[in-house]
Amino acid sequence: MTAQRAAELFRETFGEEPEGVWSAPGRVNLIGEHTDYNGGLCLPIALPHRTYAALRRRDDGRLRMVSAQGDGLVETSLDEVGPGAPQGWAAYVAGVPWALARAGHEVGGFDVAVDGGVPLGAGLSSSAALECAVAAAVSDTGGLGLLDSTRGRADLAAACVEAENTVAQAPTGGMDQSAALLASAGHALLLDCRDHSTEQVPFDLDAHGLALLVVDTRAEHALVDGQYAERRDSCERAARELGVSTLREVPLEGLDEALSSLSGDLLRRRARHVVTEIARVEAAREALRADDFERLGELFLESHASMRDDFEISVPELDTAVTAATGAGALGARMTGGGFGGSAIALVRREDADAARAAVEKAFADRGFTAPECFVVSASDPAGRDL
Ligand code: ADP
Ligand code: MG
CB count, 10 Å around CB of 366? Predict the structure, then answer.
């Protein structure tokens, strides 16, 4: 998965040179899960894993799309794109110019060849990496200039969210696309989903002898079914019953008493996760500003327990990864992403990284789980032009 390989696939498929190659990263969220649609906070980093898009404009409105991870050429035209069309992976590509056009930008058709290095469906946001690589390419080739400013990048992110929600018809809150376009190397991106403001928070683990281990559990990751909708619905109901527009408005202080008015234990637990998780993101920002990584580790563990017990989005593979990594000396670990599979992260001393990985692999083997994929990551660059 390099820019060169995407360019090569373009040449093989379309018989000419692309205008350029653009890429965008996957992401892991350090903390702040299911907070985005509650107007809350989250703290993702961009991964070193990227998806590349080699692209050339067309002036006839056609869209021709090929991916090294797809199955052959998909063809459509801009005026055939809409809710649910095209189907499959091409929706994440075709949805982007469609959404940009709806937002008032001048966009045309294109030929594109994609090569992705973000594991698909691992909770590391290959979908946003794909959309954002295409968005970067469309912006540059169309002279939209949206990569040149934070505001423009935020507009691109919004178009990518619209593409995913409406054309690919997958519910997503917006963290993934913001991370892919707005994060920066050596930093985590504090994202305020109420006012869409962002802040770069130092996250240079190397400088502190630490590492972030990602464990792709390979467990079924099925956010698109009713689970995500139930969580979202519960949060909206809880907010309504509490008389606030979003759970962001509920203060941490006096929380138990405030939640006691909710109709039922389920709503109470769902709301408690969201409110305490937002507070943990704020605490994580303070910990990072103070270089207090022990504290960050504690917050990871508290966050995991909240997702497991109150929000009920963990699965045995994720719990096993967290327990095994912690047992092998991690400062903290938690599931990351929407839940029901996907990946976990562990904050480890660099010298403990191999032992933590081995402990996770052994724990998975002992329980008869599919072997996980483990890799160490650092906070990397956002979407941009490569060639
Ligand atoms: P995640 O974003 O966590 O990886 P999603 O289910 O949101 O999981 O997105 C995965 C989907 O995105 C894939 O099923 C596929 O349709 C599409 N996708 C992502 N990357 C690529 C790629 N490089 N080539 C083709 N399709 C891709
Ligand atoms: Mg996704």
Answer: 10
Distance CA 93, CA 95 (A): 5
176 flagged as catalytic:
yes
- Closest ligand, as measured to the CA of 67: 1
Give per-residue pLDDT as tens, 8-37.
Answer: 999 999 999 999 999 999 999 999 999 999
Name which residue sits closest to atom 6 of ligand 1, judged by CA: 121
What letter represents residue 300's amino acid? F
Give the Å distance between the CA of 160 and the centre of ligand 2.
11
Pairing of strands 62-67, 109-116: parallel
**376 conformational bin, left if phi > 0, alpha if psi -120 to 50, beta if neither:** beta
Cα separation, 33 vs 173, whole angstroms:
11
* pLDDT per position as a tens digit, 247-303: 999 999 999 999 999 999 999 999 999 999 999 999 999 999 999 999 999 999 999
